[in-house]
Amino acid sequence: MTVDEVDLTDLDVFERNAAWPRFDILRREAPVNWNPEPAPNSGFWSVTRHEDIVAVDRDSDTFTSTRFTNLEEIDDDLIEKRRSILESDGLRHRAIRKLLQRDFGAQTLKKYEEVLRGLTHATVDAALRKREFDFVQEISADFPIQVLAKLLDVPEEDTGQLITWSNQLIANTDPDYATVLLDAKESEKYKHLPFRSPAALEVFEYGRELVRQRCGGGGDDLVSKLINRVPMDGESLTATEFDNTFLLLIVAGNETTRHTISHSMLALLENPDQLALLQSSPELIPTAVEEMLRWACPVYHFRRTATRDVELRGRHIRQGDKVVMWFASGNRDEDVFVNPYDFDVTRHPNDHVTFGKGGPHFCLGNSLARMEVRLMFETLLPRLKKIELAGEVTRVRSNFVNGIKRFPVRVSAG
Questions:
Q1: Which run of H or E residues covers position 325?
Q2: Which segment of the chain is annotated as a signal peptide (predicted)?
């Protein structure tokens, strides 16, 4: 394959898990590469080397998030309707982020560890009562959504609906999940909504009902804090800002950890020496978590937009061009990771870019994700006597979310 044949808009490639050789070609031959797109989109620059991804991510003055962070190009008159903290920069971004930052900090989360460990045990116990089950459905999806329900203080019986909404939103290019596909003509009716998905309307109404119940109260849940705290810039969240922030919490608090757990378990199954090592030396699990995050890279990319003409590795990027950081490629960069296609639970140091790298949009939930993944494998691995595939593993049809849809397993547990 040549550079000119690499097309990172081809969803078949990602569904087949065949993007990795394409990333390798780009890193080696064209680390900043123009990728055309079908109309109405205008094409984008792919940035695939670790060093360049970090540079773009940290320079929000030159590469802004305010023109949105996935490949879809939003009409100017709809930008404010669809803007969340992800699509903000500067003071307002920092103000809204700070509202939640303390609640997602490592020190605060330590208070929740035993509660979350209990949720982990409940998920694992329920799954292992069955000899055969779908790992995604019974473990990977169940645990993060239970944690999110606890943080939002919503009923456990609502978690299934939260998962469905999240799938419909973030996997809007997968016909197994989306009720309206992103590239369908029908999606024009929903272009004012996040992900062009009608599911957003249901998420908004669910969140608004929580607001009606909790506005002016003294609750300690994330919804209460969003609506009853005033950001540091002195401006309370507008109704639209709340809608979009609440929707982001539903998606980000569920999808990324779910897919990290799924990819990590599959990697352990395919590398039985690494599974045996973690079972015999569980003290390695915190180090292994970083390798799991590198390996899984549950979000393939985030996009920025150039605010001015700029040169990057000799390529002239024009003001207004889309610039896409392929985190998945950065996590396989041979200049940073020795044998990057080896899953090595002892890998250290591990300078992955799964959460971004030092920029203003560094993932707010990184400490929570690390804790969830660690707790899951600390709980699950000692219980597994044997695990094997019981059918085909299928992946989400998306070049945005690197997800596993189905992962049938057969287990023997202690």
A1: strand 322-326
A2: none
Q: Are 100 and 221 in contact (CB under 8 A)?
A: no
Per residue in 58-83, pLDDT (tens digit) is 999 999 999 999 999 999 999 999 99
First-last CA distance in the chain:
47
Number of domains in the chain: 1
108, HSE (Cβ side, Cα atoms, 13 Å): 12
What pLDDT does 107 receive? Answer: 86
CATH number reported for the structural domain that contains residue 240 in this entry: 1.10.630.10
With a CB cutoff of 8 Å and minimum separation 6, the contacts of 238 are none
Contact 46, 60 (CB under 8 A): no
Burial environment of residue 89 by CB neighbours within 10 A (0 to 12, 13 to 18, 19 or more): middle
Q: What is the pLDDT of residue 242?
A: 97
pLDDT of residue 108: 86
Counting Cα atoms < 13 Å in the Cβ hemisphere of 56 gives: 35
Binned at pLDDT 50, 70 and 90, residue 340 comes out as: very high
The answer to whether 297 and 402 have CB atoms below 8 angstroms apart is yes
Task: Report if pTM > 0.85.
Answer: yes
The CA radius of gyration of the chain, in Å to the nearest whole number, is: 21
Q: Can you read off the two tokens belonging to residue 181?
A: 């596909």
Domain carrying residue 386: 3-413
Residues 203, 165: Cα–Cα separation, whole Å: 7
Query: What is the tens place of the pLDDT at every residue in 211-262?
Result: 999 999 999 999 999 999 999 999 999 999 999 999 999 998 888 999 999 9
The pLDDT value recorded for residue 106 is 86
